[in-house]
Amino acid sequence: MKLWVLLILFIVEVGAEELADGGGKNLFILSGQSNMAGMDPVISFTPVVTKAFGKENIIVAKSAYSGASIRSWAKTNHEDPPPTRGRVPKVRGHFYDTLIKKVKSAIKGQSLQTVTLVWMQGESDLNNTAYEAYLRELLEQLQSDLAFKTINIVIGRISDSGLDNPKRLEGRLNIRKVQKEFAEAHPRGAWVDTDDLNDREVDGEMIHDLHYTKEGYRVLGKRFAEKSIALIRKGKKKE
Questions:
Q1: CA 221 to CA 211: how far, in whole Å?
Q2: What pTM did the predictor assign?
Q3: What is the dihedral of CA 196, 201, 202, 208, to 10 degrees?
Q4: Is residue 136 situated within a structural domain?
């Protein structure tokens, strides 16, 4: 009789632990501009997170647009005075509206265990003096719309393309600095280096292109996945 009681207690305890571990899906939101648009998560990102958590435990939603400023995701202006040059959308946050609609459709009827934003963007914001504030607002928008406070963020730092151009050097260095510091300061943040993903040979000369090679995009997705997995596991250890 005592053996059966112990066995039942063991089954109940194991079941409770599994429920806590698998009591919802791991949502990955992939967004940004052209270098996110060029990355195919099906062949790079998704297989890695699937291996880590199981196909039935992940949701991957991607929405990316070439040549777009972060102002097209954040709904509020944070620059004083408001910008009149660079990529300034007529309607702030219009790409965010598309993104959140896609995300909500993907998660409809399902509970969430974790949420991770994977962000690859910044080349269109070299004149943006408030990039950090826009990043913060983007996260806050997701926290509010998904009713999920502890969102992880993985940022792809823009590459070394254009560092040899004096006209774009200051802006590019600033965005790279902000992205790295924001990710490192955030309690659930991480960043990915992309400087080696855009090297291609043209007429016998190696150049640092704005966009990545085919292999570069594959590596990018894998790096994003590995950083995302590490943040999720780190968060679970703290619980």
A1: 14
A2: 0.88
A3: 10
A4: yes
Tokens of 162: 């254009």
Amino acid identity for residue 233 in this structure: R
Instruction: Say what the pLDDT of residue 16 is.
Output: 29
**CA-based angle 38:198:60, to the nearest 5?**
30
Per-block mean pLDDT, blocks of 10 residues, the chain (239 long):
38 32 87 97 98 98 97 96 88 96 98 98 95 98 98 97 84 96 98 93 79 96 98 86
d(CA 81, CA 69): 17
For residue 44, which amino acid is it? Answer: S
Distances (CA, A) of 82 to 94, 121, 174, 196: 18, 20, 19, 35
Taking the C-alpha atoms of residue 172 and residue 195, their distance in angstroms, rounded to an integer, is: 13
- Please tell me the distance from the alpha carbon of residue 117 to that of residue 228, in angstroms, as a whole number: 9
Domain range enclosing 62: 24-238
6 in any annotated domain? no
Identify the sign of the CA torsion 101, 105, 109, 115. negative
